[in-house]
Amino acid sequence: MFVGLSLSHAQPKHFDADNLSVKLTLVSTDYQHKTSEFLFEIANNGKQTFPADGWTIYFNSNISKYESPELKFERINGDFDKFYPTDKFNAIAAGSSIQIRLKTNREMDNFTEIPSGFYIVWNDEPEKGYNLKFESKYLPIVQAKNLVVAAADFTKNTVVKDISETKLTKIFPTPQNYTETSASYTITPSTVIFTDKAFENEANLFASDLESLLEKLVVKTNETGKGIVLEKNASVSKEGYKLSVTNDHIKIIASTPAGAFYALQSLKTLIDPKAWQTKQASLLIKGVDVIDQPRFGFRGFMMDVARNFQNKQQVLKVLDVLSLYKMNVLHFHLNDDEGWRVEIPTLPELTEVGSNRGQTTNDKKNLVPSYGSGAQTGLLTGSGYYSKADFIEILKYATARHITVIPEIETPGHARAAIKSMDARYERLMKEGKKEEAERFLLRDLNDKSTYRSVQNWSDNVIDVALPSTYTFLETVVDDLVKMYAEAGAPLQTIHFGGDEVPRGVWEKSPAVLALMKQNESVKSIDDLWYYYFDRINSLLKQRNLYLSGWEEIGMRKVRTEAGMYYIANPDFANENFHTDVWNNVPGTGNEDLAYRLANAGYKVVLTCVTNFYLDLAYNKNFDEIGQNWGGYVDINKPFDFIPFDYLKNMKEDDRGNPLNRAIIKGKVPLTETGKQNIIGIQAPLWSEVIKSKERFEYLLFPKLLGVAERAWSKDPEWATENDAPKAEQLYNQAWNEFVNIMGKRELPRLNYYAGGFQYRIPTAGAITKNGKVEANVQIPGLIIRYTTDGTEPTSQSKIYSAPITLKKSVILKVFNSEGRSGNSLKIE
């Protein structure tokens, strides 16, 4: 059960909305026929009658069709909907409620898909909205589905065996070469860090990190002695390092500050994970000899703050944990249809209008609500932005930790926030009589009659690429960003310009487009506008010594034949140093091998594959799981399973999480030796449509990100290159077993406290019923299964599962960590 937000406001003219509540109960869902039914309850908790008309209730939903005789539903734009009463709707007396049955045209895969963000607007005050108390619940119809998931998990978990922590590798991600010795070294408050001048920043950061659990160690530059020694040696690879822990010192050798930094992160993971809980008198570091370097130079995490916002403190916390696990790129998704999140000093409307969501009739003061963000601006994750000072602080923080921040300015689609912000600017200046200035940054042709719907159902979210003002706008944004990076002393080599999901129908009836096609011989069709646009963006960036990054579409060309339309790698840009994040390898789309085709054709490719790296996808089919599922399901094993240079080999599920028909990927293009040189790294996006709190963000982030870090840093595992299938499976199970033991006994305990602690996901128990008894297991060793048999929810004091439980009436299982925090419960009756 999930309870929404209620806000009080003076409402002298109308029924007090604080006394109105709504509840949705999922009655049925049909996965095969894609339908569901709800009971929608409207309750009058006040002392006045709730009127039969004169109001509209707004909300957000992925469902496009509702059927009810009492209410009329309409899609406004995006996921923004409304309903109002028909003549069959009756007034609701004080203290009473009504229930209305709603039929829809979509199945519910998990609770996060249920409509949200309900608020009421009185017809005579259209600009004011009042959030309603909201509750959603679902009946036991999903119980059978959850038990199927639990049984599948039980089978998967049977390969997991407990490994003593003493036998586990103590550095994470797994180093290239790692040997434990019988030596040990104790760090005390009097330990000194002796460092080459080149590594002074890294030494000081490490000293500061230890301050929270020991004391801030003294750093001495260009001096020698016994302690922690950082030595520069040009023979070590760029991001590589050597680390040795002996009885009388800890020695680090690196050729670059980045290498020294990663060595110090390894040293931090050698510290007992539980030590981060509180101050320590000393830190015992066990002896090791390590020679290490990353597999890929690009080890990225994409943070979407546009759909739902995360504040500066959360970004800094993310940078702390990315650096711990040696990830070196933060791809910052700063704008989309639903929000613009960074201050651009030259264009203040971008954040004045584009960073806020709330009730509006025209998007002039703020954007419409999305993803349940409600009626009021500035209160929930629908609103928010980084000021210039915030952004510069983030850049400085990242740079000190050897993390490159790639800003994404999503264009030409997914750009509604920018478009509406510039519309507001246009109207303001037109009222002031400044027509030329008003038109200077317009992003749409005011006379465009084109009609379209984006994948997310927006009808007005694509920039007109034929307008000169579009490029004036983009140059201004780029130049302001360049200035902020320079002020921060942060490197800027590229800007990501998005480029994905532009729908059919755009630009077809734009006078500006038709005029361009007459003037420019290279633009013969609407398709050619794509290449025209990215050619201009490429030139814009080249003039500023930057290169273009984007989603895969920036490197693709449409080919139309009598047999239909298909895509090829665009030869026009193959040698232009375009960096493409290739996301679409969804089975059955024909794009399973797209990353390899683009790499083979000469494009730089960051493997950002939906099937393995989209962290916003739900962990599994359990109805209680947060997340989307349009590209399948992503549990911890998916990034861990990934074979970068042969990922088709290990593709096992379709986009519904079912066993893959291998015929789908037969004959797909393999990666060539030339193509391998163009695979520059791995990236995991966390899109934020369902992320309405930092707790949800961290739940989807961890422990999945540990699998991403392992695959991006560590060398190709033996199981990935073994051709004998039974032997490969044996090697995989062994590696997986070691990985989940390291997670459960070292990294998750560390994440309880590191950087303030993370609310990572604790898995649901795997379980089956056999011979009248419930058998259970858990995915991650080190976690504890507790249970009850009296119908109550298990607590941290409930019985620990140690043997099959006789099933009499019911058994409820729940997994706990060492701190007493639990995951979702599983009820077996």
TrEMBL record:
GO CC terms, sorted: membrane
Span of domain Chitobiase/beta-hexosaminidases N-terminal: 18-184
Top enzyme category: hydrolase
Molecular function GO labels: beta-N-acetylhexosaminidase activity; polysaccharide binding
UniProt entry keywords in alphabetical sequence: Glycosidase, Hydrolase
Pfam families noted in UniProt: CHB_HEX, CHB_HEX_C, Glyco_hydro_20, Glyco_hydro_20b
Any one biological process term the GO annotation gives: glycosaminoglycan metabolic process
Protein name: beta-N-acetylhexosaminidase
